[in-house]
Amino acid sequence: MATEPDAPPRSRLVLVVEDEESVRMTLRYNLAARGYVVLEAESGTEGLEMARSRNPDLVVLDLMLPGLSGEEVCRRLRAESEVPILMLTARTTESEKVRGLDLGADDYMTKPFGVQEFLARVDAVLRRAQRPAREAPRATLLRAGDVVVDSESRRVTVADQEVRMSPKEFNLLYQLLSSPGRVQTREALLRSVWGPSFRGDSKTVAVHIRWLREKFEAFPTLPFRITTVFGVGYRVDLAPGVHLRR
Ligand code: CA
């Protein structure tokens, strides 16, 4: 396939999971016209398989699908990847919308919708997905005393002993440890770790902070601690004499 001289270095791959052929064709035509490479699936089962095997940059997912429902596809995808998901549905009630977002969809559109609005949402979801929360942080290694946080392998070790953590816990720790001594507000942490489209509240941050602390409880000589700054947020404090090295 010939490439335009001014084409972006890598075309974004969008998977459209939609059983209605007319809708699917409209989306494919317009996405392709905008420069996206489009994959199509007609059922939830096929969509899930393609999402796993082709690793798209975005999944456009209809809610009402034969085979696996869009909800189920969303739930399973979310359990194994952070691929952005834009949900489509004919349902209009607020509770359905909230449910889609609870399942981890990044955005939600109710049919019928205009093509221009759809393309704008696709662009926006992909733009948000490129922000720091999903990008590998710039520094690869953070070291403080015998703690090593490696953003490339996404491993955390204390005195060479691995501390296993979820992707969100890792990102939260990385974010806090990157700026020791500086308070980061719950809202800022929500934005940078969960992304601007996350609809949860600051309790989510508190719960993850608790989990992080629990994971480090086994290391009484840990060279840092996570301090709660009441009413504001959290701060990593390094033990006396310990410095952050990158
Ligand atoms: Ca459908």
Characterise this structure:
The chain has 246 residues and is an alpha/beta fold. The protein has 2 domains: 13-130, Response regulator (Rossmann fold, 3-Layer(aba) Sandwich), CATH 3.40.50.2300; 135-245, Arc Repressor Mutant, subunit A (Orthogonal Bundle), CATH 1.10.10.10. It contains 8 helices and 13 strands. It has helices at residues 21-33, 44-54, 70-80, 94-102, 115-129, 167-178, 186-194, 203-216, and strands at 13-17, 37-41, 58-62, 85-89, 107-110, 141-144, 147-150, 155-158, 161-162, 184-185, 224-229, 233-238, 244-245. A hairpin with a 2-residue loop joins strand 8 (155-158) and strand 9 (161-162). Helix 2 (44-54) packs parallel to helix 3 (70-80), helix 6 crosses helix 7 (186-194) and helix 6 packs across helix 8. The longest helix has 15 residues, at 115-129. It is elongated, with a radius of gyration of 21 Å. The N and C termini lie far apart (43 Å). The structure holds calcium ion. Residues 19-20, 62, 64-65 line the site of calcium ion.
Descriptive key words:
2 domains, five-stranded antiparallel beta sheet, 246 residues, alpha/beta, disordered N terminus, 13 strands, 38% helix, binds calcium ion, Arc Repressor Mutant, subunit A, 22% strand, elongated, Rossmann fold
Task: Give the helices and strands, then pairings.
Blueprint: E1 13-17, H1 21-33, E2 37-41, H2 44-54, E3 58-62, H3 70-80, E4 85-89, H4 94-102, E5 107-110, H5 115-129, E6 141-144, E7 147-150, E8 155-158, E9 161-162, H6 167-178, E10 184-185, H7 186-194, H8 203-216, E11 224-229, E12 233-238, E13 244-245
Parallel strand pairs: 1-2, 1-3, 3-4, 4-5
Antiparallel strand pairs: 6-7, 6-13, 7-8, 8-9, 10-12, 11-12
Helix pairs in contact: 2-3, 6-7, 6-8
The chain binds calcium ion.
